[in-house]
Each structure stands twice: as structure tokens, then as C-alpha cells.
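stuck on this one:
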Amino acid sequence: MNHALDQEQKEYAAYVERKSPPSHLWKDGAMAFVSGGLFCVIGQAVFDLAARFGADEKAAATIAVISMIFLGALLTGLGVYDLIGKYAGAGSVIPITGFANSIVAPAMEFKREGLVLGVGSKMFTVAGPVLVYGIGAAVIVGIIFWIGGMVFG
């Protein structure tokens, strides 16, 4: 009985191997690295341009972040961000433009259902859990540091 199960598992593993697409790990990793770096270069260019026009470091950083969020949302709205993501992979997901994409894409998909039940309720389906757990983790780490400062400080 056990032998039959082992043979069945081997046949299934061989079937999965035949049907699975080949892995392009190195190519995908390189594309993510290059495209993510390109997003960073664009953000740095916006930062440098803002600084050149007289913004201090904090204001230039804010301008760069807002510009990159706007760029990600605009490219999502135009349907271009999905094409970038097809080739860039994680390089398009990790930067702040990916966060903008994760908010705008569900909103656009459900806009036909109305502003409240479509756009409003679906806008944070992807980004919402990220925000909740990110903020929750920040609060927990903050409390740990506060307690550590009281104990060891």
C-alpha cells in the first residue's frame, strides 16, 4: 500500500515537472534589479531637480516622494504600469510607485460599481493589509524601544 502511494507521488511530481514553466530566476532577478534601480534614478532626478530650484533637503525629498506616487498612479491609470510590471517584476512592485499602483488598480477595476461600493471599498484591498500590519509593527517596535529606554536608558 505504501509502495503504491510512493509511486503515485513520483508520477505526480514528474507530471508537475513537465507542466511547470522553466524558471528564469537570474533573468527575472536582473530585470527587477535594473528596473527598480531605474525607478530610484528617476526619484533621485526629481529630488535633485527640486533641490536645484531651491528646495531644502526635506522639501526636495517630499517632492520626490509625491512625484513618484503621482507617476505610479498616472501610469496605472493609463494602463502602462501593468506593462512595466510584466517585464520588471519585483522591480515595479517594491518602490513607492508599486504602492501607488496597488491602490489605484483595484479602484479602477471596480469604478463601474460606483464611488462608494466600487472605488471607495476596493481601493485599499491590496494596500490596506500592508498599512495595517506596517503600522501595527511600528507601534509594537516603538513600545519595545520605549520600554528598553526606560529599563536600560
In short: The chain has a mean pLDDT of 86. DSSP finds eight helices and no strands in the chain. The radius of gyration is 22 Å. Residues 29-122 form one domain.
